[in-house]
Each structure stands twice: as structure tokens, then as C-alpha cells.
Amino acid sequence: MHSSQLSFSITGMGSITPAGSGINPLWENCLNSTSFIKAGLGHISDNDIQELWNQLLTSKWLVNKPAYFSRSLLFTLHSITNAIDLAAWTSLNETDVIIIGTTTGQISLWEKELIQLLKVESPLPVDTDKLSRQPMQSLAESIKSALNFPGKILILASACSASTQAIITAHNYLATNRAQRAIAGGVEELSELTINGFNCLKLLSLEPCRPFDQSRVGINLSEGAAFYTIEKHPTVTPLAYLYAGDTFLDSYHMTSPSVEGTGMQKALLSALKKNNLSPDDISMVHAHGTGSIQNDQSESHALLNIFSHKPPTISTKGVHGHALGASGAIELGICLKILNEGVIPPVTGLVNQDELIALNLPVETVKQDIRFIAKTTLGFGGVNSAFIIGKVAHA
């Protein structure tokens, strides 16, 4: 039996980014275009790590202290416990689901151990318990134990689309009555594997990225997490409403997006159709906007083909960096602030707009009544995801 609802309430949120803990410091720095990228990377500061520890260890939700704390586990538990506190949840139930998007899982636990193990000459002894945390599922198991969570936990690892797809999957779980409440989002931690991998692809910029700029040269890797409570029957005033979204796999190339943004167009058009909305209903778009040559061209082509009215389109990755699988969830927090404040931040880092990109790209804050926001994400392997949030419930 399927639910007749087309939208569900977003009631709580928690996050950690290079800008700090929670959405407010991130929001203020998006408005001011203040970048937290240093030497091309966005790290969570040691002071913020200590603050997360202090908060988490006093949280009533931490039932069992994990034997090992990866950065991802700390980021995730911090964000989830903040979200469920804001949503005024009093318990975690069997009918709840947690859906996590990530590409690296708990890599900080096992990366160095694996390198030691693989040394050809004089391999060093390794902690096999840490090494056993390599599977993605280990993150789910650690969270389940720490929170004594009685429901199901899903891990999605669909590259940079992972947390956007996690949020879409949460909507699907509620719409098909597979869950009554969902906690959805994403987490990512910086690692040598990630940094060296992207460096080999020659995608990294040592300077803060410049999405859609004529002089853009590449992306900034970062870390962080953001999670949201999504409910059918909230007991608090919703922050916004989550509408249906969709994911489309175009399989165009392992690492490059389709030149015409074919997959992104199909994902967006499907999301609009599912919600009985027209392109003109969309007030603004938070693009993926990584600052790479190929991504920005592909995404702009897709958006221009769908939105003839050219709604304001932004990217905030120049502030917080590209947290890979967590990026869509982090940017949802910014979208919630835009929806409720009626203010659109500028495209961070944009100085001279690429003359081949004809999007409406704000270079300063814009005050505007916002009804519907589309969030888009592109991932390696041709994974394209898009969802819509709005101010009002959609029955």
C-alpha cells in the first residue's frame, strides 16, 4: 500500500563542515562568501573536533561508546543526535530507518593499517580489528551499536550523489510505508586515498574553487556531515517539506559527466513530473557546481534546457568545499536557510562568468520569495540525482 502524500516534513537537522558545527556558521559564511579552503582542502578544525567530542559524550542518545572512533563516525553521530534533538524525538523505533551516503566510510581507521600491511619490504604489524572496519557496512554497524538503534540502516555509496540519493531514498521509504520516520544524510572524511586519487585525475585546485567562472581550474575536496529527520506525522513545526526526487544513471563515462547533461536532465524532469510541478514553479537551483571544467559545462547545459525562465542558480562549494558523498546533504541545509530566510547567497568565488554558461548566477545576495528549490548532484559513473524542497506540504 502506497502513501498518498507527495511531501514529508523535514523536522530536524545536524551538521559539521569546515565552517563549524551546525548550519548557522555555514550560512553566515555563504552570505559573506568566506572560504574555509586552505591549500585546496577543507578540513574540520581540531577545535571543532573537540567540541563534537564534548557534545557527543554528554548526549543521552549515546548508549554504547564505540571501541574505535573514526572521523566519519564522530561526524555522523554528532549530526544525527543534533537532528533528533531538534525534531524532539523521545525514542528510536523499529519503524525508523537511517540512510547514509558516503564514499569513504571509516577510512581513517584502516587506511594506514592497509599501507603497512602491503609494504613489500619489512611490513609492519597491523591492528587487524581496525583493518576489519574497511567494509562500508562497518559504519552502519558502529552507528547501530552506539545508538542502540532498533531499525534498519542503509549505506549508499553512489559517489558524489550518495547523500542526495539517500535523501531521495528516505522519501521513497516513507511514501511506500517501509518506514514511518527517516534519518537521512551523508558523511565524508578526507583521506590520502581520496586526495591522491583526485590528484591523479588532475581535478584539484590549490586555490578556493570558482564554479562557473571563466578561470575555474578544479575542485576542492573537503569533509563533513549533515543529517535530517524526515517524518510523516511531525510533532514540531517543519523546517520545510521534502518532495519526491529521482536518480538517473547515464553511464556516460567513469569520471566525466555527459557533455549535454543528459542524465541530469532526466533526473530533474522525473522529479518535476512526480510532484506535478512545471519547470517554471522552481524558484531557484542549488547546483552541484564543483568548479571543474566538465562538470560546470554539463550541468549548465542541463539546467538551461529545462529552466527557460533562468531561476537564480548557485554553488556554495567555494565556502565548504566538495565533501563528495556528503555534499548534497550539506547543501540541503543551505537550501533550508534560503527557503526560510528569503535570501539567496552569491555563487562563491564567481568573478567573471564563463561566457559559454548562460545561467542566472548571482554575484551578491538576492532577496526573493522562494517557494520551491531544486537540488542537483552529479557523481562519478554517471549517477545524477535531483530532489525538490518547498515551503508548503504537497498532498
UniProtKB/TrEMBL annotation:
<comment type="similarity">
    <text>Belongs to the thiolase-like superfamily. Beta-ketoacyl-ACP synthases family.</text>
</comment>
<dbReference type="InterPro" id="IPR018201">
    <property type="entry name" value="Ketoacyl_synth_AS"/>
</dbReference>
<dbReference type="Pfam" id="PF02801">
    <property type="entry name" value="Ketoacyl-synt_C"/>
</dbReference>
<dbReference type="InterPro" id="IPR014030">
    <property type="entry name" value="Ketoacyl_synth_N"/>
</dbReference>
<feature type="domain" description="Ketosynthase family 3 (KS3)">
    <location>
        <begin position="5"/>
        <end position="391"/>
    </location>
</feature>
<protein>
    <submittedName>
        <fullName>Beta-ketoacyl synthase N-terminal-like domain-containing protein</fullName>
    </submittedName>
</protein>
<dbReference type="Pfam" id="PF00109">
    <property type="entry name" value="ketoacyl-synt"/>
</dbReference>
<dbReference type="InterPro" id="IPR016039">
    <property type="entry name" value="Thiolase-like"/>
</dbReference>
<dbReference type="InterPro" id="IPR014031">
    <property type="entry name" value="Ketoacyl_synth_C"/>
</dbReference>
<dbReference type="InterPro" id="IPR020841">
    <property type="entry name" value="PKS_Beta-ketoAc_synthase_dom"/>
</dbReference>
<keyword id="KW-0808">Transferase</keyword>
<dbReference type="InterPro" id="IPR000794">
    <property type="entry name" value="Beta-ketoacyl_synthase"/>
</dbReference>
